[in-house]
C-alpha cells in the first residue's frame, strides 16, 4: 500500500526508526 507516493520500504524503515527512537526516549 502506497501513501502519497511513499514507498512501502521507506515507510517500514521510518516505522522501525520511530520504534527505536520511542524505546530510547522511554
From TrEMBL:
Keywords: Elongation factor, Protein biosynthesis. It comes from the Eukaryota. One of its GO terms (molecular function) is translation elongation factor activity. This is Translation elongation factor 1-alpha. The gene is tef1.
